Amino acid sequence: MKKIMLFIAILSLLFVQADDTSNKMIQLTLINKTTLPVGVSLVSRTKDGRLYYLPVPLGTKEEPSQRTYSIIADHYLMQLKYVQTYDPVYGWKCSFQMPPKDVLAYHNLRIVFLPCENLITVGTGK
């Protein structure tokens, strides 16, 4: 009887360890419709302080740019950063910056970034 109880205890420990999600990888798909290149900063909220910087090239509503990254499943603080906030050719500027957001990334995610709503046309001096 003691051997059976010991076997059950060891077996239950194996099942508990099999559910460990500390190194589980997920797919994070970033879709950029902003017409600006963006960079996404992910900082882990757990003790290890994991950091990702994920660039996504410019896209449009009609033809969005999409990148898929493999990251470790965790609770992250996400910050969107526009790589180029001013276009010297067309004379517009994006003054909007997204505040940091919590992202619970424990399963595959898709995040879509929409066009900058606060585009300001900068005068050319004519």
Describe the structure.
Helices cover 13% and strands 44% of the residues. The chain has 126 residues and is mainly β. It has a single domain (24-116), classed as Immunoglobulin-like (Sandwich), CATH 2.60.40. Strands 3-2-5-8 form a 4-stranded antiparallel beta sheet, with no helix packed on it. Strand 2 (38-44) and strand 3 (51-56) form a beta hairpin. The longest helix is centred in the first third of the chain and has 17 residues, at 2-18. It starts with a helix and ends in a 5-residue tail after the last strand.
Give short descriptive properties of this protein.
126 residues, mainly beta, Immunoglobulin-like, three-stranded mixed beta sheet, 13% helix, 44% strand, disordered C terminus
CATH topology: Immunoglobulin-like
Q: What is the number of E strands?
A: 10
Mean pLDDT: 78
- Unreliable parts: 120-126
Number of domains: 1
**Quick one: CATH class?**
Mainly Beta
Task: Enumerate how many helices there are, as a single number.
Answer: 1
| Percent range of helical residues | 10-25%
- Sheet with most strands: 4 strands, antiparallel
Gross morphology: elongated
Give the helix/strand class.
Answer: mainly beta
Q: Which strand order do you get reading across the main beta sheet? A: 3-2-5-8
What proportion of the residues form beta strands (DSSP E)? Answer: 35-45%
Distance between the termini: 93 Å
Rg from alpha-carbon coordinates: 22 Å
CATH architectural category: Sandwich
Order of helices and strands: HEEEEEEEEEE
